[in-house]
Prior knowledge:
4-stranded antiparallel beta sheet, mainly beta, 7-stranded mixed beta sheet
Amino acid sequence: QVQLVESGGGLVQAGGSLTLACAASGDTFRLLDMGWYRQAPGQERELVARVTKHGRVDYADSVKDRFTISKDNARNMLYLQMNSLKPEDTAVYFCNGVLRTTEVSHYWGQGTQVTVSS
């Protein structure tokens, strides 16, 4: 079982920066494909960025060149560096982990609120 706990959200002005962190429990972190998702009020949860256990990285078009995802297997930590924030980045951000063995297991954090004021 993997538990994920996000931190680092808050209120920031447009153009500012925030770094989100996700701490993972257990000893399988290096085997997880990890990602950040977000959900704005009234909208569906969407993928922001992900990094596979092999280090492949993908970003949503809306955050490319502004956000950077990184995974620290030694510390069981996932990060999302967010620069040049826009009001439309306002959402609850969730950390996600996927473990693929003989079955696929999904793990979610409780979410952290990011609010960008104009």
